[in-house]
Amino acid sequence: MTRERKRLLLRLDPAVHDALARWAADELRSTNAQIEFLLRKALDEAGRMPRDVGRMRGPGRPAKNDPGTTTSGEDDEE
């Protein structure tokens, strides 16, 4: 069962975006994936992570034979 990912318009200060983009690159993530990673971490630390949340893929490029790989560009946010 694959749940459709939600889209969100997020306005950021350009300096914050640049810092996030650099941090994401250092961890081999897209800016979008880095924001999701940080939000999940904050939810978990606050005890607010939903029980039914899906697992996030690890950093780096997915293997070419990874069935969870999407080609729709939904994670390309830079």
From TrEMBL:
Region (Disordered): 49-78
Coiled coil: none
Organism domain of life: Bacteria
GO biological process, one term: regulation of DNA-templated transcription
Stored InterPro entries: Arc_rbn_hlx_hlx (IPR013321), Ribbon_hlx_hlx (IPR010985)
Protein name: Toxin-antitoxin system HicB family antitoxin
Organism the protein comes from: Thermomonospora umbrina
